[in-house]
Amino acid sequence: MQQDDASRETTALEERIISPLPAHLDHLTERARDYVEAASSANTRRAYASDWRHFSGWCRRQGLEAAPPDPQVIGLYITALASGSPAMKPLKVSSIERRLSALASSYREAGFSLDRSDRHIATVLAGIRNTHGQPPRQKEAILPSDLLAMLETLDRGSLRGMRDRAMLLVGFAGGLRRSEVTGLDLGRNQTEDGRGWIEILDKGMIVTLRGKTGWREVEIGRGSSDMSCPVHAVASWIAHARLAHGPLFRRVTDRGTSVGSERLNDKEVARLVKRAALAAGLRSDLREGERLQLFSGHSLRAGLASSAEVDERHVQKQLGHASAEMTRKYQRRRDRFRINLTKAAGL
Question: Where in this chain does the record put each Core-binding (CB) domain (predicted)?
Answer without folding.
Answer: 19-111
